Structures are given as structure tokens and as C-alpha cells.
Amino acid sequence: MFTTLSGRFLILTVVFVMLAEVLIFVPSIARFRLDYLTERMERAQIASLALLGADEMIPENVEAELLENAGVLNVVLRRDAMRQLVLSSDLPGPVAKTVDLRDPMALVLIRDAVVRFVTPTPEVIRVIAEPARGGGVQIEAAIDTGDLYAAMIEYGLNILWLSLIISIITSVFLFLAVRRLLVMPIKALVGHMKAYAAAPEDARRIIEPASRIRELNEAETTLRDLETQLSQSLRQKERLAQLGTAVAKISHDLRNILTTATLLADRMEMVDDPTVRRVAPKIVKSLTRAVNLTEGTLAFGRAEEAAPALQLIDARPFFEEICEGEQLAVAQKHVTIRHDAPPGLTLRIDPDQMHRVIGNLIRNARQAIQVSGGAGEVIVAASDIGDAWQIRVTDTGPGLPPKAQEKLFQAFQGNVRKGGTGLGLVIASELIRGHGGTLTLEHTGEAGTTFLIHLPRSVDAG
């Protein structure tokens, strides 16, 4: 119960009501003490006037009875300039303090009441007040605080029980109201969410806003829009998945056909016919691009990249191997590929996956330089910046066109060279994300292009 919204609201209600009662109780107990003392002074005045009105002396037992009924120990009445001890008895002890009721201050009354409430030891106090209805100038009385303390305790207990009853009744009504107005609508909203989650493709399970509470109606409206968008997105993804499966099957068969056609085209270069020998290389290049397109489509569609097997490796020989392999693949010798890795630098990477990433970036840079027709250089640099490693692949090519920069990491849209698929950077970016890092375009322009790989040392650093 205490873990539910309504249960916690019930507890908070009881606590706050009791806190309010405590704030009310302090001035209430002060008022009770003032009324108690005022009533005793009025009784004392009546008793003293009755004694003064008698023609003869009254017996001691009658005087004691008057004092007992008034609840005081003695009475001093001042009329005109005379101060007269009207009623008296033996005091149980010395007078501890004087309480003046003629012009009481609220804070003083509250302070004295709290002190009396927490002090059970009885004592004798001297109370001064103005007589009621012009019965004199001043009246004084000695009062034993034992009865006052008992009366204040009884009054406090009554207040306590009344507060508990009020708290319970208020809490129950608030509990029922909150449960009816908030908890049940929220449960109904959660029920709609669970029903929709069980079959999100079923449009009948999309919630229809019906709550009359504005906040809940806004939540239902937002949930309806979200469920509608999600259902549409799921249907679109399902269709794309079906289309992707079909494209993968077609690409697989088409790759085999194109591979065979490429082998046949290679043999055409052996024919003596000059026209055939001139056209055959172009056919081979076209078929090669088609094979690369189908292979890239298959690789991207499978999405079966394994999690990286991270290990510490020496960066310098790793980059040397990649650069040497890519340099051998360069047909034009005016493109130079080299690395700039400091000795002793170690990287925590998956060597196979990082080899694919760096190789892809180098090939893209090399092809950009080759397309420009001039000489150029591709440099792979690595550095340790403390909380991360950084790898930069920089070329001196012509830079990327604005259109390519906008969709650089989008499949089939970020291709720069004619005939490309735009999948290379997408796959490379996914592999780097698997390392917990990022692949970004740091700079591009007429002076060249730089791609930055940022690999954090820990999860928090990323």
C-alpha cells in the first residue's frame, strides 16, 4: 500500500493534517490557559463580593468552601485606594511568579502556556486582573497550578483525539478522491499502454482521449499521437524489411551473374579485334562497379557485425601494414600513403574491424586524389590525448562537395565518386560506434580533407 500513489498520498495527508493541528494546538493551549485563569479570577471576585456583602463574620468552613469553589487560595481586592485581603488560606508554598492578565501579550501567553504544559511540578502563582463590571480597581488571587496543569493535559488530549479523527476522516476522503480522480485514470492509461504494446500493429488499440481532467487528457492525446506515429513507423519498417530481403536475394543472384560476366569480359581483352580490345576494359570497369554495388548492399543489409574483440596493439606496425597494403594497390605512383604514429603508442581496438575502417578511409582519400588528376598524399596520424585516442586520416585532395557533406553518413546517399554506394563510411561509422567512439568529418576544403576517429579509454569518457 505504501508503494502506491494513493497510499503515499494518504500518509502525506495524515502527516500534513497533524502538522497543521500542532500549529493550531500551541495558540489553542495558550488561549485555554488564559480562559482558565480568567474564569478563576471571576469566581474569586464573586466569592469576595459575597463575603463583603454579609453583615457579619462568616464561619471559616464557609470561607474555605468559597475559596474551593473559586479554585483559588486567597483573594485580595482593591477598591478605591484600599487594598483588602478578602479571603485567605494557608499557602502550600511560596509564590513562584506573578501573572498579569490586564494587558497580556500574545507571545508571552504562548510562552507561559508551553512552559506550564511541559512542567508538571505544581507551584503557587499570583494572578492580577481587572475586576469584572466595575467590581473594583484590581483583583489579585493566589492559584495552585496543579489543577491548571491537569486541565491543560486533559484539553491537550481532547485536541489530540479530535485531530486524529479529523485527520483520518480527511485522509479517507482525500484517498478516495485521489484514487477516483488520479490513480484509476492513470491505471487505465497504463492498461492502454500495455494493450497497445502487446499488438502495436493493431490500430484499434490506439488510445482515444476521453479524460475530462485537462492534464490527463493532454497525456492521452500525446500518447495517441505517439502510438499513431509508432504504428506507422512499424508498418513502414516492416515493408522496408520485406523489401530489403527481396533486394538482398536479388543482389545475391545478381552478384553471381555479374561475376561470371566479368570473367567473360576479361577474356574479351584477348580478342584481336581492335574495337573489342578498346571496349572490353570499359565493360570490365562497369561490371566491377556493379559487383561492388551488390556486395556493398549485401554487407549493409545483413547487419551481422560482431561485437569488437578489443585488445591492446602496437599502433606503429599496425598502421605500417595498412599503408603498405594500400600503397601497393595504387595504380598511379603520384599518390603517396604513409603514417605518422609515434613509437610506443598502443591502441585498444579490434584489429580486423579497425583495419577495415582505416583502409576504407584511405581508399576514399586515394580515389579523391586520383579523380583530381594531380599528385597527392594520404597521411594516417594517431595520438594519445590522455582520456582517449585519436586517429586522423588526412588527404591533399580537392575536398568534399557540399552535397556530399550533408549526407555523408547516410546509406546510398553519401557517395562522393561516381558509381559509389555511399556504404563505406556508414559501415565504418557503425564499427567505430561499436568501439564506443565516433567518426566525424573534421575538416574539408581545397587544401584537403581530414576524418577524425575518437576512441575513449572508458565508457564514462565517451
UniProtKB/TrEMBL annotation:
| Taxonomic superkingdom | Bacteria
Q: Name one GO biological process term.
A: osmosensory signaling via phosphorelay pathway
A Pfam family: HisKA
Show the InterPro entries listed in the entry.
BphY/WalK/GraS-like (IPR050351), HATPase_C_sf (IPR036890), HATPase_dom (IPR003594), His_kinase_dom (IPR005467), HisK_dim/P_dom (IPR003661), HisK_dim/P_sf (IPR036097), Sig_transdc_His_kin-like_C (IPR004358)
Give the E.C. number(s): 2.7.13.3
The membrane spanning regions, by residue number, are 9-30, 159-178
Task: Please give the catalytic activity noted in the UniProt record.
Answer: ATP + protein L-histidine = ADP + protein N-phospho-L-histidine
Annotated PROSITE patterns: HIS_KIN
Which GO molecular function entries does the Swiss-Prot or TrEMBL record give? ATP binding; phosphorelay response regulator activity; phosphorelay sensor kinase activity; protein kinase activator activity
The enzyme's first-digit EC class, named in words, is transferase
Q: What is this protein called?
A: histidine kinase
Please give the organism: Jannaschia helgolandensis
Q: What is the lineage of its organism?
A: Bacteria, Pseudomonadati, Pseudomonadota, Alphaproteobacteria, Rhodobacterales
